[in-house]
Amino acid sequence: MKVSDAIQYVGVFDGDIDLFEGQYAVPNGVSYNSYIIFDEKIAVMDSVDARKCGPWLENVEKALNGKAPDYLVIAHLEPDHSGSIQAIADKYPDMKLVMSAKALTMLPQFVSASLASRAMAVKENDSLCLGSHTLRFAMAPMVHWPEVMVSYEESEKTLFSADAFGTFGNPETDAWLPEARRYYFNIVGKYGSPVQTLLKKAAALDIRMICPLHGPVLKENLGFYLDKYQTWSAYAPEEKGVLVAYGSLHGNTAKAARYMAELLEAKGAKVTVLDLARDDMALALAEAFRYDHLVLACSTYDGNFFPKMEDFLLHLKAKAFQKRKVALIENGSWAPMAAKGMKGYLEQMKDISVCETVVTIKSTVSEKNKEQLAALADELLA
Ligand SMILES: Cc1cc2nc3c(=O)[nH]c(=O)nc-3n(C[C@H](O)[C@H](O)[C@H](O)COP(=O)(O)O)c2cc1C
Ligand SMILES: [Fe+2]
Ligand SMILES: [Fe+2]
C-alpha cells in the first residue's frame, strides 16, 4: 500500500489477538505498522510482533521486488515491534540496524548477540541520508519505553512517531479518536511529561504526515491529533462531562449510580455510566481522563470495598490520574466502608478535589438518599 510515491506501508493487521499487552481487549484488532522508504538506499521502518512475522516478511519481500534493504530503523524494542527483527536480519544479511544508543544496549535481550555487530547507534539530531530522502532522529525516552526514538523524514516532512499517535483497531475502517484515547491513557498515559517533551520537538518541525506504529497514517488535519496529545499529556480534561463508574453486588448501588446520572443529565451534563465489573476497565480509565468530573459509587465488601472499584482506583493511580473533581456514593448493609476506602486511594493522587457531601446508602436507595444525591449533583457541578 502506497503512503506516498517513495513510502510504502508494509505493516500487518492482527485481527485474532485476544488481549494486547496481555490485558487490553482489542475487539477490532490492532495493526503493527511498518513502512519502507525507497531511495538510493532503502530503509525499512520497524518490524512487527512475532505473531505476524510471516505475513510481514511477505509484504516486505513483495514491496522490495527483488531488492534488498540497506537499513532497518528501529524506533522501539517492545516485542510488538521487535518480534521480527531477528527474522528480517537473517533474511537480509547486509542490512544495517539503526537505533538509539539506549536501544543498542537493550538489543541483545531481544535478538541474538551477534546482531550487535550490524547495529549503529544514532543520537539526537543525527541524520541518515537515503538519497533525496533524509531521516533525522529525535530521542523520545519513555514514550513508551526508555529507548524510543522518532524519525523525521525531511523531504516529505513525515514523522515516524513510534507508539505516539497510535491506536487500536483496523486502520482501514475504524475511527481514530475513541480507540486512540483508550490506547493513549492505558499504554502511554503515565508518561505525560515525556510526551510533552516530544510534542515540543514536534512543534519545531513542519509536519505534513504522521506514520505511527499502530493505526492509520495521519495525513490531514494534523492539528487535531497534536491538540489531543497536548491535552491528554497535560492531564487536562478533553471535555466537560461526568463518568459515573460503579461497583455493585446486588444492583442497588447500580440504581443509585443511574439515578445520579439522570440528575446530572437533567442539569445539562454529558454523562457516561460504566459498570466496573462488566464494562471494559481500559475504557473506564480512558473515560475518567476524558471528562472533568468523576462519580464513584460502590458497595462495601467484607469490611472494605468492591474489588473491581479498587482495581479501577489502582489503574487510575498507576496512570497518574489528577486534576479532577470527584463525588463519592457508598453502600453498605451494616457498616458502610466504601467511601473511606475510595478516599484513601484518591488522597494518593495529585489535585483531586473530593466533594464534601458523601452519600451513604444502607442497602436500598431511600427518599432521603435521593435528596442527598441531588445535593451531591449540585456540589459536583458547582
Ligand atoms: C460478600 C458480601 C460482603 C459484604 N460485606 C459488607 C460489609 O463488610 N459491610 C457492610 O456494611 N455491608 C457488606 N455487604 C453488604 C453490601 O455492602 C450491601 O448489601 C450492598 O452495598 C448493597 O448494594 P448493592 O445491591 O449494590 O450490592 C456485603 C455483601 C456481600 C454480598
Ligand atoms: Fe510500546
Ligand atoms: Fe506498540
What does the model show?
The chain is α/β, with parallel strands linked by helices. 33% of the residues lie in helices and 27% in strands. The protein has 12 helices and 21 strands. The strands form 5 sheets. A 6-stranded mixed sheet has the order 1-6-7-8-9-10. Strands 16, 17, 18, 19, 20 and 21 form a 6-stranded mixed sheet that branches. The chain has a 5-stranded mixed sheet with strand order 11-12-13-14-15. The longest helix is centred in the last third of the chain and has 15 residues, at 252-266. The model has no long low-confidence stretch (mean pLDDT 98). Residues 78, 80-81, 163, 213-214 line the site of one fe (ii) ion.
